[in-house]
Design brief:
Keywords: Signal. The protein is mainly β. The chain is 15% helix and 49% strand. The protein is built from 3 helices and 14 strands.
Amino acid sequence: MKRIIPALMIAILFSSCATHLGMISSGVSDQNIQYEDMAVGVAQTAHVFGIGGLSKDALVLQAKQNMMKSRPLKKDEMYMNFTVDFKQSYWLVYIQTKVTVSADVVKKTGTEDVSPFSPNYLNSLGTSNMANKLFEVGDSVIFDKTLRGTVVAVKKSGRMRVSYKTSRGNFKVANMSVNSVFSPNKKYRGYRAGDMYATTFTQGGEDETVVGKVVGVGLQFVLVRSVKNGYLLKLKY
């Protein structure tokens, strides 16, 4: 019994749960418009014992600013139909709040003879998902082995859009293969960041064994830092 109680305490300490809350604000325009694109921005904060981090209003503002930076408006364009999604994850005394703000980008056309939806907008609707087996919009990810970003769109074609901050402090959105993206905090195929990973493969007719620590997990590959030389390696499961 003495061994069971500490084990239960550890399980409770490291267990987590998440809640979602969404809000939608629809806009109506008396002008002739065409739906051009969708814009997404993400922001997150953390509280320990309820202390620290940004307020919800400040977090929404930051996510909206990131959305506007990732998809700036062009001439005659405006944002409409804002959606705000809150995701809170709990680990006993630690609470992480992530906010995703999205909006339709519409353009004034000045005529009724134009289709209400542009080909680009229809393509976005037909090829985008909020999630796949591992990643979902709002997730923090690693790409190009060392860069950090946030998922803003998951494509059915096996590609993703990731928002990231450049060294100059500018926000950009990159379109990349899902196999180039890794999660630093989720568990997948039995592995998560911090676990040890070992694999053996044949190279030049000889067997070679790689042992390292998992940095991030992906759908088809795992990102591992080699114990032998410290190199970051992208290895197939």
